[in-house]
Amino acid sequence: LVCSLGELHVSNGNASLAKSLYQKHVSRLTSEREMTEVYLAAAWLEEKHFKNYEEAEKLLHIALDQSSMGNSRVQVALAKLEGRKIQSQQIGQHLEGFEKDKNSKNKHDNSKGRKLDVETIQQQQINVMRKRFEEACNAVQNEDSGLSKIMEDGRLYNAWASLEVKSGHLKSARKILMRGIEQYPNDATLQQAAGKVEERFGNYTGARDLYGGSLRIEPSAPTLVAYAMLELRHPTETSAAVEVEEEGAIGNRNKKPKANFTMVERLFEEALLLDPKHGPVYNAYGNMELQRGDVAKARKVFERGENARCTDAASVYHGHAKLELSIGNVEKARDILVEGLQEVERLEGVMDNSYHERAAFLAHTLGMLELNANRAAQAKEVFANGISRHGTSSQLLLGSALCEVKLGREESARTFFEQAVNANKKHAQAWQAWGVMEMKAGNFKVAKTLFECGIQSAPTHGALWQAYATLESRLGNFETARILFAAGVQKCPKHVPLYQAWASLEMRGGNFNEAKLLIGEALTRDKTQGSGWLVAAKIEEKQGNEGLVGLILKRGLECAPNHAELYRTLAELEVNRFRFDAARSLLEKGLEVDPMHAPLYHSLAELEARVFNVDGLAKLNKRAAEVFNTNALVPPPASMQAWGNKIKMGRSNELIPDGVATLAEKVRVDIDIDNTLMDLDPDSIIEQMGGGFEADLDYISGEIEHSSTKQKPLTQQ
Asked: Which of 52, 303, 352, 695 has the most crowded Cβ, counting Cβ within 10 A?
């Protein structure tokens, strides 16, 4: 009753009333379990709403003292609090320095305010928690301490192992869980956690045995979900409903079991009987039905989860929003995400739990939804709110950077890009997006350095190789571009755009046979990518085979009917043949497929002007104004609807700035790499780019300054 009333006060914004309530009633409780519950709620209130880490720690220590030092739940809460305390202190110091730098007249005097080593802060947080867990677990195993007799469960081992799994130390997690199982052989949660680790190792038989052992001790929703997901991903021959041939299998040699959906569905329903508020069940259950093509049933599952007011609300709302997005209901998806964020914030305000970090996914999805709907200002606000709650999320920081790029604020974008790659050095999309922005701005050497840093950190990300090679080709360094394309294809053989871009390079160089081989390989690997057909048509056009161009484009539309540029290119071909009605029909169809593809509007406007169709031009102008807006701060009236329709139909001599140079030095990237690439294999190229991040990666200091010497036009170079 005390916690429920406190939750009501917090939800209504009356944190002080909740604090008084906890103080008044906690001393009246006689049950250790109930006292622990109130102390945990009071400690979280102090940390979350009053930012008083010392008082929160004091309350947890009181709870620990009153439970004879045997309360594993409080000990886990203490370890997490200490970790968050360090993170909060470091980030607070950074923000304080940043504000001083903003107010400083000397723009170069910003080293103190700008230095924030996110990775080091995260590692410090992990080390503090690891030390606390290790000390507590060692005390439990020490017979003289007597804790092994007092403590009733292996929660400490579970939390410690979870920390190691998140840090990528699976072997350490396995050892910790085995220690815990030996100490607490009847703790079902330890068996379930150990099963998840074995699954990560690829030991599916061992995982099944551990899940089965956990269920025999005590049936639980998390274990049933884990068992169900294992059966979905890696069904056994005995549990499989039928056997299906693997794609590309010859005869009956390569058959694999197909998931027994009836059994999996039964497991999900049993899990919901045990715990109707367990969000991951609804998420996994709904996604399974969506993958099977039953949208109505999937939606019904997610709505059940939302009505149940789950403890892990984020996973339910995120799954439901993804469902609506997948069928083009963008407005409904947005409403679901907003409602989900409100529910998560309500839960966060009441009690610490292991789920509130998942809210970052809700914020990221909502922000990207707004950005894709040409609502950059709204997206920026969503990302800013998410960062204030999850400051070290690389995905949210990248989202903010993309918003700033969309709004034309390059300096601000650079700040967010820096923070994103420092929060996660392996975030390939952040390196790529930053490099592309610098490339478009004409900062070619900066872009090259960023691409090299990205490839060193994420060598299997094909888009990074493609962006770097494209940059070299634009600078006229064709041999270097070829080497990068070849290395990228070898490291990322499934990244089809690499073949397409390489084929374009050879086509521009007049090497048509090589270009045809490459684009043929691209189309063999994936004929549904319309850009491949465009390149193939362009090759034939360059060779003067005009009859083949139309045939290739028509074949492309058969294989990729949702590729807007194919419609536009084929329409231009029809215009050249003076077949204006056919061209108009193709352009209109293209706009149905992708109403946000601006070149279609341009081509259709040129066509209408050519035939003096003034009424058609006026209607087209009105139509475009509903989707696009010259002011990025004001969202176009029909932009979200247009994106929904698209989904439905788809179903150098420059100086390196100090900040980037510092980053390259820490990544150990050779800035003058061009001359060293000629005779190296892909792994050697990566080695030339750098030797790996140091553990104490320094935060990029100082704002990026452009050289006073402007980049020469490419023709002059």
From this structure: 352
Angstrom distance (rounded) from CA 560 to CA 572: 18
Which residue has 């490099």 as its token pair? 435
Residue 15: closest CA among 313, 349, 355: 349
Rounded Cα distance between 183 and 64, Å, is 21
| Residues 405, 406, 411: CA angle, nearest 5 degrees | 25
Which of 35-44, 385-394, 639-648 is predicted least confidently? 639-648
Directed axis angle between helix 496-508 and helix 530-542, to 10°?
Answer: 10
Sign of CA dihedral 65, 67, 72, 77: negative
Q: How far is the C-alpha of 524 from the C-alpha of 559, rounded, in Å?
A: 12
Cα–Cα dist 70/388, whole Å:
35
β-pairing, 255-257 vs 243-245, is: antiparallel
Q: What is the mean pLDDT of residues 629-636?
A: 58
CA atoms within 13 A on the CB side of 684: 8
Residues 183 and 177: their CA atoms lie apart, in Å, by: 10
Q: In which residue are the tokens 């193709």 written?
A: 586
Helices (H), 110-169: 111-114, 118-141, 147-150, 155-166
Segment 474-502 mean pLDDT? 94
Q: Report CA-CA distances (Å) from 49 to 1, 15, 44, 55, 215.
A: 21, 7, 8, 12, 39
Tokens for 94, please give them. 């950074």
State pLDDT tens for residues 424-469.
889 999 999 999 999 999 999 999 999 999 999 899 999 999 999 9
- Give the count of alpha carbons within 13 A of 134, CB side only: 11
User: Which amino acid, one-letter code, is at 353?
Assistant: N
User: Which tokens in the block code for residue 381?
Assistant: 């606000």
Helices and strands counted in the chain (H then E): 37, 2
Q: Does pLDDT of 588 surpass 70?
A: yes
Q: Tell me what the mean pLDDT of segment 394-402 comes to.
A: 94
Do residues 47 and 53 make contact, with C-beta atoms less than 8 angstroms apart? yes
Integer Cα distance of 237 and 528 in angstroms: 33
3-state secondary structure of 244: strand
Q: What is the DSSP string of 273-330?
A: HH-TT-HHHHHHHHHHHHHTT-HHHHHHHHHHHHHTT-SSHHHHHHHHHHHHHHTT-H
Most confident of 79-93, 239-253, 358-372: 358-372
- Of the candidates 425, 351, 405, the one whose C-alpha atom is nearest the C-alpha of residue 36 is 351
Residue type, 426: K
Q: Is residue 608 within 8 Å of residue 618, measured between CB atoms?
A: no
The 10 Å Cβ neighbour count of residue 648 is 16
Q: Which tokens belong to 710? A: 């402007």
Tell me the β-bridge partners of 243: 257
Task: Tell me how far apart the alpha carbons of residues 94 and 518 are, in angstroms, rounded to a whole number.
Answer: 50
Using alpha carbons only, give the angle 702, 703, 706 rounded to the nearest 5 degrees: 125
**Quick one: which of 431, 429, 403, 401 has its CA closest to 415?**
401
- 98: which 2 tokens? 């940043």
For tokens 């690439």, name the residue: 677
Confidence at residue 712, expressed as pLDDT on a 0 to 100 scale? 37
Closest to 562 in 3D by CA, of 584, 529, 588: 529
CA distances from residue 662 to 91, 102, 467, 501 in whole angstroms, order as listed: 21, 22, 22, 31
pTM of the predicted protein model: 0.73
